[in-house]
Amino acid sequence: MDLLIENQTSEKINVREELTKTIKEVLQTEGLDLNYEISVTFVDKDKIRSLNREYRNVDRQTDVLSFPMNDDSDIEGMPKMLGDIVICMDVAKEQAENLGHTLKRELMYLTAHSTLHLLGYDHLNDEDKKVMRTREKEVMRNLKVFRDDESLEDIDLTGEKNKKKTNLTDEDIKYLKDEIKKELREEIRNSQLDDKEKIYNKENLSHGQKFLKGFDYAYDGLVYAINHEKNMKFHLLACIIVLIASLFFNLSRLEMMFLIIAISSVITLELINTALENAVDIAADGRWLILAKAAKDISAAATFVSALNAMFIAYLVFFDKFLNFYDSVILRIAKRPSHLALISVSLVIIVTIFLKGVFYEGKGTAFKGGFVSGHTSVSFCLATIGILLIDNPLARLILFGLALIVAESRYEANIHSTKEIIRGALLGISVASLIFGVFS
């Protein structure tokens, strides 16, 4: 059997032995010889989404795609072309982490699943799905690769040899059998679900817990939109630019109010547009329907109108300011430390959310985890502002100590890593120092 592996990612991947073993097991389980040639390509999220859109008309990322060659030619001495397998390493990592097993285990399963697709298996209806899942389960059992490769890979579900080797009692082996079988069933079911198909288990919370958890849910929605929609990144950057611009121009409260309302309306409609697109995708089930396209186009048009409105308001607010730029900058701002403090804290919060959204890896909520520690960034920003505005050395020391206590609490609670806390501290200090250093 010839296995061609191409790595189009920036990561080092060394799984040839495992994938070869998996494909051979699938072919042997199907009673076929090994005279086949298969290619496996590793790609990132953007590439797999592009391929999924191009060949399946489904505009979202997936874990693996199969491209059968349907080669009926039988040239003596030459292997048959079975087809191509394309695996997304980013999604494979996420699924391995969510399911609690190794990346090697996930890649082997995806390869087995895709090879069965190349052989003609599918899961479009319940009957076909049941047949394919049975074949997958049989292959994975024969490979003896389980969630914890080191502790379970030597356990044979049927033999006595490994029972003596591991010194397990009959009760222990029975328990392991049941757990492994349950795990395989659950894993096979979940690992093939796209994001829209995964079932969310509702939490049983009290009224008070629901109120607090609502902030987490709202933040999760914001992070999802930032992570999946490029326009959201642009809108947040525009918000940051407007806040910084307010430092250079003598804006009245009314003008600032109109700018904030305009930006908020654009972001709000973009969130609604994203939610509506997901709802339409669920309803259309991957089909390209005229009404589904119309619904998406209309929601996009609403966002576009809001963006035009924001641009028009910005024009009205800033046009005259540009003409009197030198009369409206440093002298007015230097007398308004409250405005500087508000802009600094706002920028820190927006940049923190932006960084968490861009670098989101499936972990973290509004108050826990993520690329940057939000509590630390805000606390160090406030401490830096206080240090710059207060002359009393003791008061400065107290402010810095309070910021350190906040950072230490995030580490002690195992909510953030040291790197995430350091990033937050640097973000808060740098933003406050830059704003007050330039404009105060």
Flag low-confidence runs: 147-166
What is the CATH superfamily label of the largest domain? Answer: Metalloproteases ("zincins"), catalytic domain
Q: Give the averaged pLDDT, no decimals.
A: 78
Quote the beta fraction: 5-15%
Distance from N terminus to C terminus (CA atoms, Å) equals: 71 Å
Named at the architecture level, the CATH assignment of the largest domain is 3-Layer(aba) Sandwich
Strand order of the largest sheet: 1-2-4-3
Note the main sheet.
Answer: 4 strands, mixed
What is the CATH class name of the largest domain?
A: Alpha Beta
Topology as H/E string? Answer: EHEHEEHHHHHHHHHHHHHHH
The overall number of domains is 3
Number of helices: 17
The class by helix and strand makeup works out as alpha/beta
Count of distinct strands: 4
Choose one word for the global shape: elongated
Radius of gyration: 28 Å
Portion in helices: 55-70%
What is the CATH topology assignment of the largest domain?
Collagenase (Catalytic Domain)
